Amino acid sequence: MKKIRPLFRILPTPHGPMSIVARGQALIGVALPHKTRAALVREIADRWPDAVSSARLLPRLCREIRDYFAGRATRFTIKVDLSDRSEFQRRVLAACRRIPAGSFLTYGELARRVGRPGAARAVGRAMATNPAPLIIPCHRVISSTGALCGFSAAGGLALKRRLLDHEKCFFTPLP
User: Fold this and answer.
1) How many domains in the chain?
2) Domain's final residue, options 69, 104, 123
3) What gap in Å lies between CA 131 and CA 125, rounded to an integer?
4) 151 vs 83, higher pLDDT
5) In terms of domains, do 157 and 116 share one?
6) Is 150 part of a structural domain of the chain?
7) Residues 114, 149 within the same domain
8) Residue-wise pLDDT tens digits, 157-169
9) 20 to 30 A from 94, CA-CA: which of 7, 76, 103, 137?
10) Do 98 and 155 have their domain in common?
């Protein structure tokens, strides 16, 4: 059986260019905003060396990302391929995906939500291997002290802070 080559598309954001990578209609990866297009292209080549550029890739997701950065959308509807993850990692990433924009959880709280209290470090390792940051919003997971930590994407903790600050526009306090 012939393996389908991944396709990628580069998108502009207020924080620099980012990319989405898919096989068929399933998202397999996201490279968060980089300072330069050249740095982003290097990451794409390193992570998905056989990927080919496609200006028409996943138009609905591209609209959702554009709307997210414009403050008009809080959810992404794309299917993310997690078939290469363990069952625990899939449960953690699915629970992370349900964290609403404008909110956050601690690693320990996320561990409890997947039925593994005390597994905060394992949750952190699952977050570190998140193939689709932003879509699976690992930036919404923080330490038990409230500190930002554990964000290895391009832009590091500064980008995590900018994403959380951006999402304040989505937060609606309860009456």
Assistant:
1) 2
2) 69
3) 12
4) 83
5) yes
6) yes
7) yes
8) 888 888 888 888 8
9) 7
10) yes
Angle at 126 between CA 15 and CA 25, to 5 degrees: 65
What does the DSSP assignment read for the chain? -PPPPPEEEEE--TTS-EEEEEETTEEEEEE---SSHHHHHHHHHHH-TT-EE-TTS-HHHHHHHHHHHTTS-------B--TTS-HHHHHHHHHHHTSPTT--EEHHHHHHHTT-TT-HHHHHHHHHT-SSBTTB-GGGEE-TTS------STTHHHHHHHHHHHHGGG-----
Q: What tokens were used for 47? A: 């992570």
Residues spanned by the domain of 46: 7-69
Both structure tokens of 104: 């956050």
pTM (global) more than 0.85: yes
Range 64-73 average pLDDT: 92
- Does residue 79 belong to any structural domain of this protein? no
Contact yes or no for 74/68 (Cβ under 8 A): yes
What is the pLDDT confidence band of residue 175, given thresholds at 50, 70 and 90? very low
Q: Could you give the residue numbers annotated as active site?
A: 138
Q: List, for residues 75-134, the tens digit of each pLDDT value.
A: 899 999 999 999 999 999 999 999 998 888 999 999 999 999 999 999 999 999 999 999
Mean pLDDT of the residues in the chain: 90
CATH of the domain at 159: 1.10.10.10
Higher pLDDT, 172 or 66: 66
